[in-house]
Write a structure and sequence with these properties.
Shape: globular
Order of helices and strands: EEEEEEEEHHHEHHEEEEEEHEEEH
Mean pLDDT: 83
Helix content: 10-25%
Largest sheet: 6 strands, mixed
Number of strands: 18
Structural class: alpha+beta
Strand content: 15-25%
Length: 423
């Protein structure tokens, strides 16, 4: 019987692997061409894998939650089963043994697969595995760090492209090596325990947080801002907005304040490649907006904020946030930010310690607005106050520079008319 082995397709430029987040079929299921078989996730984009052939699924090579390299087997389909086609037969055709590009992008026709004997291995037979590299793959910076830490790279599993060992892999190895052995926890007899496997976006978030927290020495600076005048202006503008314009929140004002502030402090609108030891400053201001979605935290990006007015910022924030929540955001809308804003709105609390969106060097945290008495020199008056809790990469941003930058942002927010002055 003829068989088709579907392999992990190339789901994006520079992507060497993806996580399997969903199976839509199981062994014994009948499939037809273009039927969605599975979903994989790379970075923060989910990609559906369609079937290029009709037939019956005989074997699944991967379980949900596992990472699959490009060209590795995903599943096997028996293609000459009469029940696979609506008319009771499947047309004879040359069937490729693997798919190296997504079906819509196929440019080369692989050689046909020869029909297999009817007697085969059991369906749970493990997929073929690649032979290990004789020499671990790692950059010079990783090798130097491993040598300094007395780490044998042959004992470290690489998670980078083609098995390259990264700094994060070294961090993980050190964590395991330094962890004391302890007995497995035993659940009480009178309680129920539900074990939930971390997969998909939740797993990506976890990996991103570990990368940032383990690689970046954070310094968090908290400053209070009197936003009474800004809130009065915002209420007036919302009361006079045109039909179709979104309601202004504080975020568009903060975005415009950041654009003006980073013009004088370019080191904050930057990324740091710690493996190469290079800080990149950007003229364009691409602001990431940390957004809570049903699947978890994502950071859609408002690009070229320096070219947008206040209302345009509001429209773009609403658009990319909605796309993130509904899972319709394009890949380029979820990457490439140069500085990030984190806001929990009315739940923002008084102080927070936001985690930097690696490889950026700064994140601005917005806390909730509260009315507090403030001494004006003669008497206490009620003022609307808000804290900015902002974190910086202390390797490339000194505490003084962080404070000066936030003071510049504060000055713009407390005198919001300055936000609208060019230059």
């Amino acid at each position: 019987m003829a068989e088709f082995v579907l392999t992990m397709p190339d789901v994006g430029e520079g992507v060497a692997e993806a996580e399997l987040v969903e199976w839509n079929v199981k062994p014994g299921d009948i499939v037809h061409e273009d039927m969605v078989l599975a979903a994989v996730m790379t970075d923060k984009a989910t990609v559906e894998i369609p079937s290029p052939v009709a037939g019956v699924v005989t074997w699944l090579a991967v379980t949900v939650g596992n990472t699959v390299p490009v060209k590795a087997p995903l599943l096997r389909i028996e293609t000459d089963v009469a029940a696979a086609a609506p008319n009771g037969s499947v047309p004879e055709a040359e069937v490729p043994t693997q798919l190296t590009e997504a079906p819509a992008d196929m440019t080369d026709t692989p050689p046909p697969v020869e029909a297999q004997p009817t007697a085969r291995e059991p369906e749970e037979a493990p997929p073929p595995t690649a032979e290990p590299h004789h020499k671990p793959l790692a950059s010079p910076a990783v090798r130097q760090r491993a040598d300094d830490l007395d780490i044998d790279l042959t004992k470290v599993k690489g998670t980078g492209p083609d098995g390259h060992i990264t700094h994060a892999d070294l961090d993980g190895f050190l964590t395991v090596r330094g962890r004391p052995e302890r007995p497995e926890p035993v659940a009480p007899h009178d309680s129920a325990v539900e074990e939930v496997k971390i997969t998909g976006l939740r797993r990506k978030i976890a990996e991103k947080m570990v990368l940032s927290a383990s690689r970046i020495p954070h310094i968090t600076y908290v400053e209070e801002v009197d936003v009474t005048d800004l809130e009065d202006l915002r209420a007036t503008m919302n009361g006079n907005r045109r039909s179709g314009q979104p309601k202004l929140t504080i975020l568009p004002f903060l975005m415009r304040a950041l654009v003006k502030a980073v013009a004088d402090h370019p080191g904050m609108n930057a990324t740091f490649d710690d493996e190469q030891g290079v800080v990149s400053h950007y003229e364009a201001v691409h602001i990431g907006i940390a957004t809570q979605t049903p699947a978890g935290l994502t950071v859609p990006v408002v690009r070229h904020t320096e070219t947008l007015g206040l209302w345009e910022c509001a429209e773009e924030v609403a658009r990319v946030a909605e796309a993130a929540r509904t899972g319709t955001a394009h890949r380029e809308e979820l990457m490439g930010s140069t500085i990030t804003i984190s806001s929990l709105g009315s739940l923002g609390g008084l102080v927070s310690t936001p985690i930097i969106n690696h490889p950026e060097v700064a994140i601005i945290g917005v806390n909730k607005i509260v009315t507090r008495p403030l001494w004006d020199g003669n008497r206490f008056v009620p003022r609307k106050m808000m804290n900015l809790s902002s974190s910086f990469d202390h390797r490339v941003v000194d505490g003084w520079d962080a404070a000066v930058f936030i003071q510049a942002v504060k000055a713009l927010l407390e005198k919001p008319a300055l936000i609208f002055i060019d230059g």
